[in-house]
Structures are given as C-alpha cells and as structure tokens.
Amino acid sequence: MLQKEKVSGVAAPANTDGVDAHYDHVRAIFDILQGEREADLLLRNLNILDVHSETVFQGSILVYRERIIALNPDESVVRVREVFDGQGLYAIPGLIDSHLHFDAQLAHPAAFGEAIVPSGTTTIFAETLDFASAAGDEAVEAARALFKDHDKLPYRIYAFAPGKKTSVEVTDAMLKMDPVIGLGELAHLSYMTGNEDDFRKSALGRANGGFVNSHWGVTALPDMLLNYMPAIGAHNNHDVWNEEDIEKSVRYGFQTQIKFGVGSPEVIRTMLRAIVKRRWPAENFSLCADNISVNRVLTKGHIDWVISLAVEMGINPIQAIKMGTLYSARSFRMDNEFGSLAPGRYADIVLTDSLSKINPLYVFKGGELVARDRKLLKTVDLDYSGMVKEPRPGLDGLVPEQLDLTPIEVSADGSRAKVLLFDVYGRGHLKFSQEVWVPYEDGAVVPEVDGVRLNRISVVQRYANGERHIVNGLFKGVSIDRGAVSTFWPAPFAYFVSVGTDSAEMCDNLKRLDTLVGGCVVTEGGQVKASLPLDIYGVMADMSLAELVDATRSIDAALEELGNRNEGEPVVNKLLTLFISLDRFGFMV
C-alpha cells in the first residue's frame, strides 16, 4: 500500500507519476492566455460552427499541443508561433466514420489515410476482424504490426477486437492493445444459437470496460432475440436497411449508424428518406461507411459526401454535420476529445466554403494542416512490408469439370433445370441466393434467367482436406462475354470466387490467382489482362494509394474490354463483398 505524507496539512500520495506533466500543461495554458507564453497556432477569420448551440459565429481558434485552448482570444495579448488566415471559410469539426471495416478496404493504414483525410475524415472507429482472421496463428503479432505507429497517421483510429472469425484467445489479446477500445461486431447467426465463443467474447468485452459493437441482424432475427444485443450492453447498430429496421434500432436504444459503403447505392437514400419522413431526432444517428473502396472515396468522397447527401434529402445542414461529428463522438463517450470546436478538444478542423455541401478545402488534425484542396500534404513514411507473406498455393488437382454448372433438379419434361442464383451483395441479404429454374437443352444448363444471359460463378475452397468444397451457380453483378475474373479472400475461410462463361477459362484463371497470396486476376485466352495482388495476409496491398487505385481501375478496364459495364464501386471491391454473405449463409466450410 502506498504511504501518504502530509503536505501543508493535506494528505498527498507519495507516488506523483504523471502529475508533474499535467501541472506543466495546465500552467502553460494559463500562461498562454496571459500572454506570457506562445501558443502553437491561431486560426483567424473563420465562420465557426458551434454544434452545441447550432449557431455560426465569426471568430478565431487558438491551438496548443494539438488541442483548442481558446475561442476568440484577445489577439492583443496572445503570442503565437503561426497564424493561419481562414479566409472567411466555415470551420467545422473533423469528420468521423463511426463504423469501418478498416481491414477490408485493401489499402494499408497509410495509403488509406491518403484517401480519407483529404475528404475531411480525421477519426475512424474500425473493425479488424478480417485482418486478424486472415493472419490465423499470427493474428496477435500481425495486429501489433498493423497498429504500430498508429499515432503517426494523419487520422485517429480507435479499433475493436474481433467479435467473430477469430478465437477467444485472439480477441482477449487484442482487447489489451492500443488503440483497441472494445469488442467488435458479433455474428448474429451464431449468437442467436447460443454460441459459447460469443458468450466468452462478450464477457471479455464487458470485463475490459470497452464498447460492444452490434451486428444486430434485424432482417434475420426473431423479435424476441432482438432484445439480446442491447440487453448485454451493445450500444450501436449499423445493420439497418430500411425504415422498419431503423425504427426498431432506435426503439431498442441503439445509436444507429447510417451506412453508405460498397454495394449500397440506394440503401443510403432509403434510410435518409426514412429519417426525414419520420422526423426522427438526428441525435439518434451517426454516419459510417462500413465497407468502402479508396476509389469511391477519391471520386465521390467519404463522410463529407454523405453529409451533403443528407442535406440534399432534406436533413437540416447543421444536424447532418452533427451526425458526422458530435453524435458519433458522443456515442463513444469521446465528445470531450473531439466532435466539436470547443476548448479542450483536439484541434481536428475542416474548413469548407459551404455547410450544405461539404467541400474540405483545408483539413487540420491536432492543429497540423494535413490536407489541402483534397490532397494529403505529407506522405506518411510507414513501412508495412514486414507483413507481406509468401504465396501458399492450394489448387493442385483442380480440373475444369469441377466448375461445370450441374442442375440441382431437372423438370419432369427435361426442359428446365433448377440452379443457384447469386445476386451481388448490397441489394439485401434475403435475396443473396435463390434457387431458380433456367432452360435445359441437350443435357446442359442454359445460363439464362428471365431472358437475360448471366455469367457463371464458382465458389472454390483453396485448401482441401479430402474432397474440395465447390459451389457452382449463376451470378448477377458481372457480365463478361469471354474470359474470367477471380478473387480470393481468406477470412474466415480461404476461398476463391471465379466468374466467367467457360469452365476451362475459369479454372486456368483460378490457378493463376493461386500463385499469389491473394487478390484479383482477369484473364482471357490464358493470358493475364489485369492483376491486383494483396500480399499482406491476402487482405491488403503493399502499395501506395496511387498504385492501388491504378490496379483496381485496371481490373475494371480489362473487364470492360471483355464486355462488362460496371457502375459504382470497382468490380474487385464488389466481388470481395460477396464473401460476407457467402460466409453468413453457409456457402463456405
């Protein structure tokens, strides 16, 4: 037990570690406000958005050691090292992504920052479950390498230990890491069955005093089980798709995260319309990407884009901004750190010329100008090559005949065959896979549904222990006249997806992709037309942002030459999102 000693008649602890540093800080702020010491930065000539009073006022912001220490300081008194002229622009808090699968964007942390920070995003709350799952036995070591030097990134990251796809031991170890703050989303199709690992992970999350993210599964769970996640302490929910989902999520007390990521071009509009129609208070909501490609961020934006869309859909501009700032910070009990422009908060500031259409002209993180005119000002010199793995091929013995589409059932008259049809992820889980009747001629399936010619898809296990698990069907989402495209994703199971028209071409394509750790390959006639290697555990590219964007766009260009007409997200990102539903609905083992 620590012994206490009397200091001026007051009991004081003998151990004062850290107190001196705090003393120096509070004394420095007092001295700065008295004009006796220099502050780091003064941003003047601003129209400052006060998200607390929902007003805009003309003024200036004083910054010291990354934090705001004064609004409208007396400039005849204060001394500063640097002055920045805000040119009359609006100053709003740095934008926040409240739920992002940080490991599923294909970019390593530094490259990802090159995309999101110029869009005004200064903080992300990030899932890491696919990365940890892909790393397997190396998960804990890999997570430490991923988070190493995270404080050098031009954005703040708060991460979550995996609630699914990894062992309890991995989750436990990651909960003890910085910057992990809680338990990530659970798999609702396992916790609804009373899965023991889910119970242990939930207990670990609660015991560590962290947050528990919810993957609520409102479209899949019976009403009684909808009580489970909020009852155990889960505080947020991004698994909403329509008005009814949102109503239940709000009623059950969740901070409801409105997502706009890969594969969901209309879902975000549906949800924003519902909020306007039902006049739900904006304080119930925060904004998130869930899954998003760097190409999408570069072409349309990130949280800045969805705030602008929310205004376009009828939400008050200040309320829309609060959904992407204060309400996100408050939901994680971090609104004393960021989410508003008030003394004591980090000086994470976006300067825009409009509040209704966010245009991040300048972005500050902790008072440092990190982006201007949608360009990162300084490349972060972080090396992730130590996480690059060697390929481990697993498709020896695969033959084209294993990819042939065979009927589940043939009609009595022999003219029709029943086969599986997979729809591209994002149009709703309930129609992800269906059994459909198609023409059957001369003992072969005709890949045609309602008169529309479709490509075939094969879901192929990479490492077989005995008979290789393969599921063949038809696919909506990619439409090529010739050639093939394949992708690989290792979490939670190592599987390929191949799309094409011919078994031999698809098989050859798969074997070429099998020579990589992971990624995507387009072929025609046995020749590689485009390739994107994911060398970091099969989920991230060891590339700069420019290299990654060029590679993803080359995939689209090659597929366009083969007849595909893509809209929205790059094809590689669309295909990779398939693995979420393939896992969810039991098509991988």
UniProtKB/TrEMBL annotation:
Q: Which UniProt keywords apply?
A: Hydrolase
Domain (Amidohydrolase-related) spans 285-370
Which EC number(s) does UniProt give?
3.5.4.2
Q: Quote the PROSITE patterns the UniProt record gives.
A: TATD_1 (PS01137)
Give the matching InterPro entries. Answer: Adenine_deam_C, Amidohydro-rel, DNase_TatD-rel_CS, Metal-dep_hydrolase_composite, Metal_Hydrolase
Q: Does the keyword Cell membrane apply?
A: no
Report whether Hydrolase shows up as a keyword of the record. yes
Q: Which family does it belong to?
A: Belongs to the metallo-dependent hydrolases superfamily. Adenine deaminase family.
Protein name, per record: adenine deaminase
Provenance organism: Bailinhaonella thermotolerans
